[in-house]
UniProtKB/TrEMBL annotation:
Keyword Methyltransferase: no
Lineage: Bacteria, Pseudomonadati, Pseudomonadota, Alphaproteobacteria, Hyphomicrobiales
Coiled coil spans: none
A Pfam short name: Response_reg
Native organism: Rhizobium rhizophilum
SUPFAM superfamilies in UniProt: CheY-like
Protein name: Response regulator
Statement: the UniProt record of this protein carries the keyword Ribosomal protein: no
Residues that bear 4-aspartylphosphate: D52
Listed PANTHER family: RESPONSE REGULATORY DOMAIN-CONTAINING PROTEIN, STRESS RESPONSE REGULATOR PROTEIN 1
Response regulatory domain mapped to chain residues: 2-119
C-alpha cells in the first residue's frame, strides 16, 4: 500500500515526503493538485491521504468530499495540512470526511505520531516501532 500527499507547493511537498520517508516504509506518492490526485485515487489504493487545504483548481475540502464518494476510501485516514487553525475550517473539514489535521509548519514528532496513530505501528520503520 502507499500514502498519497496532495500538495501544490513543491517545498512543502518535499518536506512532508521527507518526513514520511523517515517514519514509514510505505510507498509515498505526491500529486500537485486535486484533479491529478483524484485520478491517482481512481487508479490506485492508498492507505492514507495527506491533503493540503489550499490547492489549485479544487480545494482540499472538495478533494476530500470527492474521494469519500468512492467506496474503497470510506475508512481511509485523510489528514488535512493547513496553517489555518480556525474552528470553522475544522468543522467543515470533519464534515467533509477529514480524519485529522497537521498544522504548518509540520513538526516531525507530531507527524510521526499521526502516522503511527492512523497506519498502526506496523507501518512504521522497524526501528521506530518501539520508540
Amino acid at each position: 500500500m502507499a500514502v498519497l500527499i496532495v500538495e501544490d507547493n513543491p517545498t512543502n511537498a518535499m518536506i512532508i515526503r521527507h518526513l514520511a520517508k523517515k517514519v514509514t516504509a510505505q510507498e509515498i506518492k505526491v500529486a500537485g493538485d486535486g484533479n491529478t490526485a483524484l485520478m491517482l485515487c481512481h487508479a490506485e489504493n492508498f492507505e492514507m491521504l495527506i491533503v493540503d487545504h489550499q490547492l489549485p483548481g479544487m480545494s482540499g475540502l472538495q478533494f476530500v468530499k470527492a474521494v469519500r464518494l468512492m467506496d474503497r476510501y470510506r475508512d481511509v485516514p485523510m489528514v488535512m495540512v493547513t496553517a489555518d487553525d480556525g474552528s470553522r475550517l475544522r468543522e467543515d473539514a470533519q464534515a467533509a470526511g477529514v480524519t485529522d489535521f497537521l498544522h504548518k509548519p509540520v513538526e516531525a514528532m507530531a507527524f510521526r505520531k499521526l502516522l503511527a496513530d492512523h497506519l498502526g505501528a506496523a507501518a512504521l520503520h522497524p526501528e521506530l516501532r518501539s520508540a
